Amino acid sequence: MKILFVVNPVAGTDKAKKLVPLIKEKMDKTHIIYKITLTSKPKEATDITIKGLEEGFNSIVAVGGDGTINEVAMGIVQKGYGTLGIIPGGTGNDLARSLDIPQDPEEALYSLLSGVTKDIDFGRINGKIFLNVASMGMDAEIVKRNEKIKKIIKSSISYTISMIMTLALYKSKRLTIELDKDSIETDVLLAAVSNGKYYGGGIKICPMASIDDGYFHVVIIKKMSKLKLFTLFPLVFKGEHINITDYVSVYKSKNVNLKFDNELILNIDGEVLTVKDSVSFITHSQKIKVYAK
Ligand SMILES: Nc1ncnc2c1ncn2[C@@H]1O[C@H](COP(=O)(O)OP(=O)(O)OP(=O)(O)O)[C@@H](O)[C@H]1O
């Protein structure tokens, strides 16, 4: 094992940066060759990963949130080798949660050093990859709004505030959802293409999603009255919304194509992307090796 730790100093409003001394202290007690590199700008983690793999580091550990993990994974996918490690240092850390990686950074490091790995699926969309959840509709608007609010309120409560504001203001969107075996046209509040179970800081959007089964689970929440929405929404936190079958459907599919008028805001592993007219989510035949049990 030769490990490169890629630390995003701004992840989790500097939570990841504060983990550097802990990583040094614990790693110095081992005989493992390691290096710690801090990113200096967005997207740089991909280039750092590629360079690290070329220098002979076989394990690249993302120290940050889901955005950092995604960028490191992109480097591993581009090179076609290397094992991904995760030390949760972000705000939400939902992929770690979906993978049962401890939220405590020290425990996550020990778990990683035990060397157990798992091959996980990932999806492709417009040249990007996603490991956890790609979603659209109300929740993508929540993430977009949260990007503004978290600059003012530097705490995970910003997400709750964004959520309440969006619940009150959001209008549904007409989508045609093409799956392997079905095509559905409906007004949706939210649709989530899930590889992992959790997003948004622990919301169990898709309890039946399995990160290594080769499929996406697609959760579709249909248009409903605001009153109904306020009663149904709390159920999402525990994954109980899927029992409200009048409004919520779940499909299993290898590929998903969405068609819509004008623009759609997507939330891909916590990052916002705006797309036009249509977008496809494709399961990739390649897998990513991750330190997880
Ligand atoms: N040095 C840097 N300066 C500014 N932004 C950076 C830097 N390094 C990485 N980034 C960007 O920070 C963004 C957020 O990272 P990340 O998702 O890991 O943290 P988070 O948002 O706190 O956690 P989570 O997604 O789990 O809620 C990413 O889009 C990444 O490109």
From TrEMBL:
Cofactor (UniProt): Mg(2+)
Positions of the DAGKc domain: 1-129
Pfam family, one: DAGK_cat
Keyword list, A-Z: ATP-binding, Kinase, Lipid biosynthesis, Lipid metabolism, Magnesium, Metal-binding, Nucleotide-binding, Phospholipid biosynthesis, Phospholipid metabolism, Transferase
Gene Ontology biological-process entries: phospholipid biosynthetic process
GO molecular function, one term: metal ion binding
GO cellular component, one term: plasma membrane
Entry keyword Magnesium: yes
Domain of life: Bacteria
InterPro entries in alphabetical order: ATP-NAD_kinase_N, Diacylglycerol/lipid_kinase, Diacylglycerol_kinase_cat_dom, Lipid_Phosphate_FormReg, NAD/diacylglycerol_kinase_sf, YegS/DAGK_C
Keyword Magnesium: yes
Family that this chain belongs to: Belongs to the diacylglycerol/lipid kinase family.
This protein's name: Lipid kinase, YegS/Rv2252/BmrU family
Lineage of the organism: Bacteria, Bacillati, Bacillota, Clostridia, Eubacteriales
